[in-house]
Amino acid sequence: MTASSFPAPTFPTPPRPTAEATFRVRPRVAAADVLPRVAPPTLNPAELWARVHAEGTPLVDQASDGGVGDGGVVLTFVYRERDDTSTTAAVVLDRSQRVEASTCETSALEPLGDGVWALSLRVESQWRGAYALAASSTPAPQLDSPDAGRLAWWWAAAEHAAADPHAREQLDAKRSVASAPAAPRSSINASHPTQQPAVEPATPLADHPGFSVLIPSTPAPAAGWPVVLLLDGDRWLDLGIGAITAELASAGTPFLTLLHQPTDRVTEYTCSQDWVSRAAAAISAVGRLWPVTGGAIVAGQSLGGLAAVHAQCAAPDVFAASISQSGSFWWSSHDPEADGARWLTRTIAEHQPHLRSVWLEAGLREHDQAEQSGELAAALAALPTPPRLHWARFDGGHDWACWRAGLAEALAWALDESGVTQ
Question: What does the pLDDT look like over 359-370, one tens digit per residue?
Fold first, then answer.
């Protein structure tokens, strides 16, 4: 079945640009996420480095103030120069955050001697985030230097940022993951790739550009595979999606993963009916090639989260559930000034689609994704026939480290409660 052969959508479509110029939306600037800086552990460099070897990084200590709410901890990030000939003049912690001139100071590690540098930050017990360490041979600018010069120095240093080789968890080849003791756990420890279960390589889906299929090595269930459409598929391959699928399969919830890699993310993932039709056609093609069962689940992050919920609204007979992690529900059609913001939330409230299951989550340390997701959750709950709904906030930012940690739980919830495995 081709995309054009699907029935005309009943859910409204937003205005699209008529010009051939590439579609763009106004960028959203994340709010500054400054974690309180505290004194590092009172250890000499050798003792500190011994802890690094024994425990991995960042080091975790109880906060002296006892924490707020469920308790806080101190995370200490540690860097060591390679040898005595090092020309390191500054080391900075590069987190997933908005960068301001003050970031030069709030993220700078301090030298402790013997080539060891450290930075201690106070976090709550469920905080999680990606990071990298960057060493610079140029000293950081003075506090009274112009902001433009300080920002230029930061970005020049960040170009050399690299994953922390001593981290307990790696996000990918370039970034590591820090997490407090009560933070959601990840299914993946990419620093030990041999521990990841074997999964067949993604197979391109013929005649459906941008779509590929990932099938676990275990046999298909008797009733067929549930189908999960995962947006930004290439990124998830880098993040080790195979370990998540294998973990769920071992827990009795196997599924077939349909990956989508956009050619123009901003166009395809902003409530595009054309993209929804192509996704539905790809799912139909999967059903002809492999044994599948039930309605599909669609999952995405940021703009992908917006696209996931919109796809379910536009094709509820195709998608039994949607998963949105930090969805960009601020989007307001092709004109950021037209009809106010939050097109999808407003349209759901007005047209009352019948949805089965919706998972929403967003970070407390993002700009306004949590507020917007909460507004969407309220609009969904107020529908005459509300969907089965999950809405939660996590302690983190607009960050793949947080999304990776939450995806397995979201998929298990959707696979179980949406009825796609029944």
Answer: 999 999 887 888
